[in-house]
Each structure stands twice: as C-alpha cells, then as structure tokens.
Amino acid sequence: MNYLLARQYFSQEIQQPDEYIDLAKAALFIAQEEYPHIDPEEYLNGLDTIALDLQERLPRDRYPMKVIQTINQYLYEDLGFAGNTEHYYDPCNSFLNDVIDRRTGIPITLAVVYLEIARRIDFPMVGIGMPGHFLVRPDIADMEIFVDAFHGGEIMFPQDCEDRLSQLYQQPVTLEPKYLPVLSKTQILARMLSNLKYIYLNQQELEKALAAVERILLLTPDSIIEIRDRGLLSYQLGRFHQAENDLQRYLQETPKARDINVIQQLLNQLKGSRD
After folding, report:
1. pTM of full prediction above 0.90
2. 90-140 pLDDT per residue, tens
3. Where do the TPR repeat units fall (predicted)?
C-alpha cells in the first residue's frame, strides 16, 4: 500500500458523522502513511482480543470504579502498558500500531487504547483535553472521575485535576469546565496529528510535518493557522503555488495577526520571483 491510499482511507473514515467514526481505525490509517505494510485489521483484532480477555475478568457488579480498576489491572499490570517517559517525543508514540506493539506511548495514544478497550466492553468513556495533558472519564452524567492513561490509569478527582493545573500554570487555578472539555473523535485525531506535526518540525522533517498538516486540514478545513502552516511548509519545500494561495488567504482572514509583516514579506518574495 502507498501513502496516498492510506490518506484516502483516512479521509473516507472521517467523512462520517463523528459518532460513527472508528477512532482506532482512523488512528491506524494515520500510522499507515508511516508504515504502509501494516494491516489495520490485525491491530483492530488485537484490541478485540484484549477486550475479550478483559471481559472475563470483569466483576459481576459493574460499578464504574470496579470496572476501571479491572481495566487498569489488566492493561498496566498484566499487559505492561506504560507511559513513555524516557523518549516522550519519539514519533512512534503517536502511531497506534507502535503503541500496541511496544505497549508504551504518550497520554493521548494510551488514552485511545483505553477508550477503545472500554468501548468494546460496553463501558463507554470520553476523552478529556486537559491543558498540557489528556485524560479519559466514564461517559456517565455527573460522574467526576478521571483516569490518567499515561500514569498507569491513575484515578483522579476534580481536586486532583485542579492541583495539576495549578502546577502547570505555577499559580492557583480554580477548576472550571473549560479546563476539562470533552473532545470529539475528530478533535482527538487532530490533536494526535498536531503532536506529530510539532515533533517533525523540531526534527526538521518538513515533508512529514506537511503531511500531518494536510490531514489536520481534512479534519478541520477552515483552521486558518493550519492553512498558514501549510503555506509556510510549502514555501520551504519549493511548492510556491500552494504557498502563495495559503499565505494570501491567511492575510485576508487575519489582517491583524502578529506575524502579518513576515507573511507579507514572503508573499512579496513569491510574487517577485514569479514576475
């Protein structure tokens, strides 16, 4: 399989209403651009197997806390999943096939594993985009229990989240709903791709960074920041027609942006080289 086919499959999957998107499958199509040889169905079957094995371990009384404790026991103690603290910025941590194979990853990819296993045992959970981190929680009204998939399934309560946010901002923070938003599948996938984008930018792998931006734009076509970044990356890669279109649109839609002078200079260079 070539990367264009993987991109096509990804695009087809995310065209559905959000509730029908198969999160794991879409994440595996992201990985397939990096690993054209992988078979997503093999990894989906692997998640099915984990869920079946877990099903046998579930308590008869499915109280949420007991279910979470059983998931944690199986995923982290029996199977050995763990957060990758030593090589946090390794791009492998963002590819679901690597996370399943190596049983290590970053918060969002480990959360995807957690969400997908929970869904398969009929214990629906949602992703929580806490600033600087990613959590999951049961999709149960008024139940304020959060799970940190990166730290061994640590169970957190609102006060724990408030304490962590206070550490992040280095000042007291009063917990508000805006700090713990429920993310859609589309938003989760975009966040995974954003992680890849910044990793590749730091590594100066511009083609791969551009591929991440292109897929973010499939998810959020009107994201003007991603349109700008596609333009900047296209410029650096010598794709001047795309660069000019994107940067011109950025100028039109954000006339008061802080970087407007830099973007205008690039556009002038592009137009000058064309004339």
Report:
1. yes
2. 999 999 999 999 999 999 999 999 999 999 999 999 999 999 999 999 999
3. 190-223
Rounded CA gap, 122 and 125, in Å?
Answer: 9
Exposed / middle / buried, residue 91 (Cβ in 10 Å: 0-12, 13-18, 19+) = middle
Q: Whose structure tokens read 């109280």?
A: 63
The alpha carbon of residue 142 and the mean position of all alpha carbons in its chain are separated, in whole angstroms, by 26
Q: For residue 207, give both structure tokens.
A: 């083609």
| Residues 101/102/103/106 CA torsion (nearest 10 deg) | -110
DSSP conformational letter for 77: I
Residue 126 tokens, joined: 């949602």
Tokens of 266: 């690039």
**Tell me, what DSSP letter sits at residue 181?**
P
Residue ranges of domains in the chain, CATH in brackets: 3-183 (3.10.620), 222-274 (no CATH)
In this structure, are residues 21 and 30 in contact, taking their beta carbons and an 8 Å threshold?
Answer: no
Question: Which among 99, 137, 94, 145 is positioned nearest to 118, based on CA atoms?
Answer: 137
